[in-house]
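Z., the sequence and structure:
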Amino acid sequence: MVIGGVGVGDVFDGASGSSADAPEWSSAVEPLAALQARFGSQARAYRDAGRSAGTRRVYESAFALFKTWCGQHQASPLPADARTVAFYLTDAAVRYRASTLDLHLAAIAYAHRAAGLPIPTTHQAVREVRTGVRRTHGAAARGKAALMTEDLRLLVGLLDLSPVGLRDRALLLLGFAGAFRRSELVGLDVEDLEFTSRGIRVNLRRSKTDQEADGRPVGVPYGVSAETCPVQAVERWLAHVRSVLRDYDRGPLFLRLDAGGRLRHARLSDRGVARVVQRWAERAGLDPARFAGHSLRAGLATSAAAGGVSERAIMNQTGHRSLAMVRRYIRDGELFRDDNAARGAGL
């Protein structure tokens, strides 16, 4: 693997060989070079599979920034010493949020760990500079706004029965009702959906918090209104797809459309989810800059909390393993409930 133009997978470098099944173990001595020739390529493949492609891209981008900075200051990026990293944090603190700097530190640590080098980010000086940056500039993440139920109704009310309207309605409503991350939503295949009398049983094969791909089922029930029912919206979208692509029972659920609304046999990108949300938010009179793909997931959690849904039920739908983030949604959802302290003060 290469991060920012620097090879970090040297532990597996060497002559490539066959990845065929190895013979049964025996007491025969086999030099490391022979193992490297036999297993090197497959070991690299397993290593790369340990992190999602998205994570690897983010790390590569972050480490490239660090590498460029080091080149400008005649410092070594790999191996980097603690002083170099501390100075980089100090310089970058005026341009990046604390959460972004943490990502940069993770990328630097990953590059060193993969190359079998000492990790400079764990040095006390680096840790103290990081703490100081967070205390000085704040550590609050500037997330996108939640797309609440009433906002979603505005958006889908603009959608017609054109191919774009059918796909985007299904995308918005299923993404909201399932509280899916955008990568989860566009990663769904038709065969992952089971239609039942109570709604859709979605088999989520992999998610951000399920890197071992154990999978988990997500129930998406029928809506109370046909206009905002996610099940009917998905059924109508699939009916359109199958009218164009006969016997379409396997493959991406959400396909790309060309400028004329014609189907392309290609999976919609995760960035495409954000574009759909922002496009219809703008047409509904909302500020598109406030919303992104995550707004659907956040909207379900926040709207459910405002409606009095329990923490457990929200976590079952979102797949959160920690209460911390879910409770943030609950706090947001409860800000203007009837027992708001200011409301009770009688202003």
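The beta strands are 2-3, 6-7, 193-196, 199-204, 216-221, 255-257, 263-267. Residues 82 and 182 are 36 Å apart (CA to CA).

Let me know what you think.
H.
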